[in-house]
Amino acid sequence: MPAYDIRTEYDTSRLTRYNMAPVALRDIVNEQSTGGSSDVSAPTVTLVSPLSGGDLTADGAITVDVTDVGGLSGVFLSASFTQGGRRVMREVIYDIDGFDADYSNSTRTAITNGFRFILYRSAGWPVGLDLAFKVIPFDQAGN
């Protein structure tokens, strides 16, 4: 299978954009709930691999770390596949019930202050579509 070059478009604390062709990893969106606890630090979402300039094959893995110094109470991951700016499909990757059947080869491993998700799509990452991930972590304080 061919490898796809990934280039960073821009990076902010809440949104990291990546591009690759023909499978394009578009967004890692880190959304938090809001809470009234003294823990004001929001959880952190880090794209571990593929790194900017790295490769991802259709059957490759995407690794994401989700951490919070106060501890996590939950994580929601989803993927949207678009073509020409139009959403073709949306999939839940992981929720309170675990991994969706389309991502059953994926893993969640405990790391310091959180989890590492290694994501595989059973049918492979679709060729010719852009891929946007949404990651919503919830910490113990509700941030």
Architecture blueprint of SSEs:
Elements: E1 4-11, E2 15-20, E3 24-30, E4 44-49, E5 55-56, E6 62-67, E7 72-83, E8 86-95, E9 98-99, E10 107-111, E11 114-119, E12 130-139
Parallel strand pairs: 3-12
Antiparallel strand pairs: 1-2, 1-5, 2-3, 4-6, 6-11, 7-8, 7-12, 8-9, 10-11
For the structure shown, list the relevant keywords.
143 residues; Immunoglobulin-like; 8-stranded mixed beta sheet; globular; disordered N terminus
Structure description:
This protein is mainly β. It has a single domain, classed as Immunoglobulin-like (Sandwich). The chain has no helices and twelve strands. An eight-stranded mixed β-sheet has the order 5-1-2-3-12-7-8-9, with no helix packed on it. A four-stranded antiparallel β-sheet has the order 4-6-11-10, with no helix packed on it. It is globular. Mean pLDDT is 74; it is low at 1-28 and 30-36.
Outline:
With 143 residues, this protein is mainly β. It has no helices and 12 strands.
**Percent of residues in helices:** under 10%
Radius of gyration: 15 Å
First-to-last CA distance: 41 Å
- The CATH class, by name, is Mainly Beta
Beta-sheet strand percentage? over 45%
Looking at the structure, the CATH topology is Immunoglobulin-like
Structural class: mainly beta
- Poorly predicted tracts of residues: 1-28, 30-36
CATH architecture name: Sandwich
Enumerate how many helices there are, as a single number: 0
Arithmetic mean of pLDDT: 74
Report the order of strands and helices.
EEEEEEEEEEEE
Q: Report the sheet with the most strands, covering strand number, pairing sense and barrel closure.
A: 8 strands, mixed
The tally of strands reads 12
